[in-house]
Amino acid sequence: MKPVYKKYLTRVALIWAGSFILLCCIYIFVLAPQKKTKNQIGKQLALKKQIYNSALEISKVETKIKLKEQLETLQNKLVDFVIEPENSADLIFDISQIANEKKVDSFSIKPREKHRSSDLLDCEHISENCIDISFKGNYNQFATLLNSLERHRPVIFVDDFVITRSQESYSDHQVNMSLSVFAKQRQDS
Questions:
Q1: How far apart are CA 182 and CA 54, in angstroms?
Q2: Contact 142/177 with Cβ under 8 angstroms?
């Protein structure tokens, strides 16, 4: 090759290499951050569109009726899990009746004075009432009583139980159980 073409090709190669490096720097420092910003703005736009569409959907009469029906259904289900404060005595009576039906011996029930605070449950309107029961019975009596308590409405939660084995082989075993029930808190008017 002639020296003139060599100089020409060298200059062209250097200009192309310099241009390539310059374009890479422009991409890294200018275009890439803009692409990142564009993606973030796109996500924000999608979120705002979703909020807008939700607001449009909620403003429809059919949706309001549907939400009202769902709220009523949930309020009806709340009765299965929460008792009114004045019904606590009835609940203790119900538990005593279940124990009588299962024919357990030496049955005793006492509400625990110390209620767990609503802060523990992270609720403003619901508290937890605790009840301790003890009785003597065989395993079948214990199992059927436990089953009946867990199927009761409003729901009774069995926190823990202890079965103390009887020293006599044909005697009933001592059972101690801790129960919990959710109750509405009295609202100060």
A1: 34
A2: no
Extract the tokens encoding 19: 């241009």
Greater confidence, 146 or 88?
Answer: 146
Q: Which tokens is 38 given?
A: 């564009």
Continuous segment of H or E residues that includes residue 133: strand 126-137
Please give the span between the terminal C-alpha atoms of the chain, in angstroms, as a whole number: 102
Instruction: State whether residue 108 is helix, strand or coil.
Output: strand
The tokens describing 112, both together, are 């625990």
Omega before 85 cis (within 30°)?
Answer: no
Please, are residues 36 and 27 in contact by the beta-carbon 8 Å criterion? no
* Cα 60 off chain centre by: 29
**pLDDT at residue number 188:** 61
Say which residue the tokens 């003597």 belong to: 136
Backbone angle region of 172, left / alpha / beta, with phi > 0 → left and psi within -120 to 50 → alpha: beta
Residue 27 in tokens:
């991409």
Alpha-helical runs (H) found in the chain:
3-26, 32-58, 61-78, 88-101, 118-121, 139-151
Residue 119's pLDDT band (cuts 50, 70, 90) = very low
